[in-house]
Amino acid sequence: MSLLKVVGLGKSFGGVKAVDGIDFELQAGQLLALIGPNGAGKSTTFNMINGQIRADRGSVSLDGTELVGLPPRQIWRQGVGRTFQIAETFSSLTVVENIQMALLSHQKKIFTFWSPANKHGREQAMRLLEQVGMLEQADRPCTALAYSDIKRVELAIALANEPRLLLMDEPTAGMAPKERNDLMALTKKLVLERNMAVLFTEHSMDVVFAYADRMIVLARGRLIAQGQPDEIRHHPKVQEVYFGT
Ligand code: ADP
Ligand code: MG
C-alpha cells in the first residue's frame, strides 16, 4: 500500500481552479518531486496536504487515514512534517536548543523547556544533529550559522516530530550547486534510513533529475505527467508546457 494517496484533490480561489482534481501516490522510502511553472498549483497542493488550506474536493490519505478536514496540528501529529524556516522560529537559541524545543513540542511538553536546568532532551537532540552532520555546531547560536547549515538544522527540527511524510517547498533555493547536492544527498539518506517519504518542489532540474525517485508535473492545476525522471525528461507534454519548447 502507498504511504500517501491523493485522489481527485481540488481547490478553487474565486474563479481560478488552483488545483483541478489531481491523483498521485507516494511510497515510503521515496522522494517525489512536484514540478511545474509558477502558478501551477504546487504550493496549494502542499497546503492542502498539511491542512493549511482545506480542499474543496478529493481525498488525501496517509497509511489509510483520511487527512482532509483534519486541523493542521492533527495532520502534523499523524506524521506529516514540513521544513520550517528557522528565521521564523527561535533564531536567538543555540542549534541544540532549537532541536530540544522541537522534541518537547513533539512530546507536548513545550513549557518544560523554560525550566532552569534545560537539559531536557539534549542527548536525543544531539543524536538528531549527528544525523544531519551538525554535531560540532550544536552550541552555536543559530544566527551564527551559514545558510546551508541552517537548512540542516531545519531538517533536524522536522525530524524531531518523527515524520512519515516530509513536505519540502524548494529546499535548495538560494544555495550553491555543491550545497544543494549535499542537502539532497542527506535528505535521500534520511529517507532510506527512516523509511519515510519526501514530497518536494524544486526549480533546479539538475537536483530533480539527480534525486527524485518519481516526478509529477503540474500545469494550471492539472497533473499533466508523472513517472520516473527519465520518462518525464522526454515527455512531449512536459517539454511543451514546462520547458517551453
Ligand atoms: P505554485 O506554487 O505552483 O506557483 P500556487 O499553488 O501558489 O502555485 O497557485 C496556483 C494558482 O492559485 C495561481 O493562479 C494563484 O494565483 C492562485 N492562488 C494561490 N493561492 C491563492 C489565494 N490564497 N487566493 C487567491 N488565489 C490564489
Ligand atoms: Mg509556490
From TrEMBL:
GO cellular component: plasma membrane
Molecular-function annotations in GO: ATP binding; ATP hydrolysis activity; L-isoleucine transmembrane transporter activity; L-phenylalanine transmembrane transporter activity; L-valine transmembrane transporter activity
PROSITE patterns, per database record: ABC_TRANSPORTER_2 (PS50893)
Highest taxon of the lineage: Bacteria
Cell membrane recorded as keyword: yes
Any one GO biological process: L-valine import across plasma membrane
Transferase among keywords: no
A Pfam match: BCA_ABC_TP_C
InterPro entries, A to Z: AAA+_ATPase, ABC_AA/LPS_Transport, ABC_transporter-like_ATP-bd, BCA_ABC_TP_C, P-loop_NTPase
Swiss-Prot/TrEMBL keywords: ATP-binding, Cell membrane, Membrane, Nucleotide-binding, Transport
Domain ABC transporter, residue spans: 4-245
PANTHER family named in the record: AMINO ACID ABC TRANSPORTER ATP-BINDING PROTEIN, CONSERVED COMPONENT OF ABC TRANSPORTER FOR NATURAL AMINO ACIDS-RELATED
Protein name stated in the entry: Amino acid/amide ABC transporter ATP-binding protein 1 (HAAT family)
Annotated source species: Jezberella montanilacus
Organism classification: Bacteria, Pseudomonadati, Pseudomonadota, Betaproteobacteria, Burkholderiales
